[in-house]
Amino acid sequence: MTKRKKSGPRSSTRTTGHKIIIVDLLEIGSSHGNLTLRGGRDTGQVTCIALPAEVLPSFLTTLEQARLDAEEEYWNVVRHVMATAAPGSSPADASQRVERWLLSQNWSKVLSAVPDDAAHSLSLLTHAGHISFRLAPPYTKSRVLAVFDPVQLHRLQGTLAHHYAMAQQQAASSPLHPRNAIALALDHLAGQPWPPPPAQPPSEEAGQYMRGRYEAFQRRSPYLRTEANTPDLEPDSP
């Protein structure tokens, strides 16, 4: 995880060799002993991710810490972005505003603070109130920085836990080498239609969930990031 730092505009969908995808729609599954994720937007941008059973225990532990860390800034980000929206704006408009704001953040600076080598091809970064997965083969087909909403990931904890267990069961009985299993899982995901079937429109229940999460956030103790997960970032140029 990296140090949070606000930065000036930088509108780009690619940085330091990574394509940036802001995840709005998210599907979670399991395939060939892997936890699978398909995330993107209804405009057609999507990334397919396959995480083998062997990396899942440490990954999910780190993901929970990243979620707590990101939420320390998340609610301020939501308030800031929504303050620019016209009264009565649709959920789609709100989502687009958040995407534009996130793309304007200096992700290249955050990425540059993390070693970029094959041994660290899967990293979780917290920045601008969100969690990004820095991904490279074999977990994806190409280098991607996928940016996730921490509250969305919290809401889907049950689904993640279910498919984590499924991936572990599949891996235990699979004769495939993990690399071959990852490739098969990614090929399967890539062959599925996108976007997925339309979700139900936001409801009062969804609004209650968000209010409940905010209240829970206010009651909890602040998350204190360890020094090991807080690399120094060079200050922005004037």
What's the overall average pLDDT, rounded? Answer: 85
Helix content, binned percent? 40-55%
The biggest sheet amounts to:
5 strands, mixed
Q: Kindly estimate the percentage of residues that lie in beta strands according to DSSP.
A: 15-25%
Q: How many whole angstroms does the radius of gyration measure?
A: 18 Å
Tell me the span between the first and last alpha carbons: 26 Å
Oligomerization category of the chains in this entry: single chain
Strand tally: 8
Structural write-up:
This protein is α+β, with helices and mostly antiparallel strands. The protein contains 7 helices and 8 strands. A hairpin with a 2-residue loop joins strand 6 (122-127) and strand 7 (130-135). The longest helix is centred in the first third of the chain and has 27 residues, at 56-82.
How do the strands and helices of this protein lay out in sequence?
Layout: E1 14-15, E2 18-22, E3 25-31, E4 34-40, E5 46-52, H1 56-82, H2 91-103, H3 107-112, E6 122-127, E7 130-135, E8 144-148, H4 150-155, H5 157-173, H6 178-190, H7 204-219
Parallel strand pairs: 2-8
Antiparallel strand pairs: 1-2, 3-4, 4-5, 6-7, 7-8
